[in-house]
Design a protein that fits this description.
Blueprint lengths: L7 E7 L2 E6 L5 E4 L2 E4 H4 L7 E3 L5 E5 L19 H11 L6 E5 L5 H10 L4 E6 L2 H13 L6 E5 L13 E4 L8 H7 L5 E6 L2 H11 L3 E7 L6 E2 L6 E2 L9 E7 L2
Parallel strand pairs: 7-8, 7-10, 8-9, 10-11
Antiparallel strand pairs: 1-2, 1-6, 3-4, 5-6, 11-15, 12-15, 13-14
GO molecular function: tRNA (adenine(58)-N1)-methyltransferase activity
Organism: Thermogladius calderae
GO cellular component, one term: tRNA (m1A) methyltransferase complex
Length: 253
């Protein structure tokens, strides 16, 4: 299938130079490796190679959730892809799901959730900060995912709106103060996930979940990439270590 105006494309030059843009006639992608004219991309196929104005190779790829962060302007510290991937896996988010998100930030997790729930699902993204909501909406609009998200300016601790969610994900400083309203909003057996930077927050959250949730677990993700070379394969000298803790539990009645 040929690339056409309106398509969202990942321009991959190398692992440090990945750019997501929506194809528009007359538009130009400018990089330190040269420029690429969108007019030269229209009509090509995904997976094809194109050259920048300076002769560097770039590949035309379909963006995946792991790429979304590179397209976003950040206003807050984001949850890393390694943590998001485990969270959405534990949450069981799939096509048609309805998910409640408390604490939107830049919209990174929101975008991944929106991608997974598909056209038939919905993400209710709740944040008390208007500036963060605005930036998240801009980022989701760039990715073409706005129609899958309902943005709401509200303190998640005071949530009293939609009910019967398939999962809830929290990225707020004090999730223990939201647990009861989240419990009331979830379908029976549905999971709650909370991302927390400190162990003290974890202890308070787990204590607040007891009696309302079961199968409670706490996780930390550590990811190490490998450099594969002939007779010289070894771990990368750089890795993303501790970034936070993930708390998981299932609603009981």
């Amino acid at each position: 299938m040929s690339i056409k105006p309106g398509d969202l494309i990942l321009f991959y030059i190398d692992s440090k130079r990945k750019f997501i843009q929506r194809i528009e006639p007359g538009k130009i992608l400018g990089t330190d490796r040269g420029v690429i004219r969108h007019d030269d991309v229209i009509g090509r196929r995904l997976g094809e190679q194109i050259s920048t104005s300076r002769g560097f190779k770039a590949y035309l790829l379909k963006p995946l959730p792991v790429d979304f962060l590179s397209a976003m302007r950040r206003v807050t510290q984001v949850i890393y892809p390694k943590d998001v991937s485990l969270m959405v896996y534990l949450a069981g988010v799939s096509e048609g799901a309805k998910v409640l998100e408390g604490g939107v930030g830049t919209g990174h997790v929101t975008a991944v959730l929106a991608y997974l729930v598909g056209e038939k699902g919905r993400v209710f993204a709740v944040d008390v900060d208007e500036a963060k909501l605005k930036k998240a909406m801009e980022n989701l609009d760039k990715l073409g995912l706005m129609n899958r998200v309902v943005f709401i300016r509200k303190d998640i601790r005071e949530w009293s709106g939609e009910r019967d969610f398939d999962a809830a994900i929290l990225d707020v400083p004090d999730p223990w103060n939201s647990i009861r309203v989240i419990h009331e909003s979830l379908k029976p057996s549905s999971p709650l996930l909370a991302f927390l930077p400190t162990i003290n927050q974890v202890e308070k959250t787990v204590a607040g979940m007891k009696g309302l949730f079961t199968d409670i677990h706490v996780y930390e993700t550590l990811v190490r990439e490998y450099l594969v070379l002939q007779d010289g394969t070894r771990p990368s000298p750089r890795m993303i270590g501790h970034t936070g803790f993930i708390v998981f539990g299932r609603k009981i009645i």
